[in-house]
Specification:
This protein is mainly α. It is built from five helices and no strands.
Length: 68
């Protein structure tokens, strides 16, 4: 909820997303942090954690899970 609140406050792009896309960005924020997720939405540059897991690994997995 804290990541959702941060993203809602700081990203118009996030506010305008579908619920499914928001869940993907929340996965990104879980991995990279909410501030990094806002930066990702603004710049499109993908970050990675200490294990070299890209934040988009989460957004892609969630997007795939919602495909019919």
């Amino acid at each position: 909820m804290k990541n959702h609140t941060h993203l809602t406050r700081h990203s118009k792009k996030y506010r305008n997303m579908s619920t499914e896309d928001k869940l993907g960005v929340l996965g990104y924020a879980h991995n990279q942090g909410a501030t990094a997720a806002v930066e990702y939405l603004f710049t499109g540059q993908v970050g990675a954690d200490a294990f070299n897991t890209k934040g988009t690994d989460y957004t892609d997995a969630i997007r795939k899970a919602f495909k019919p």
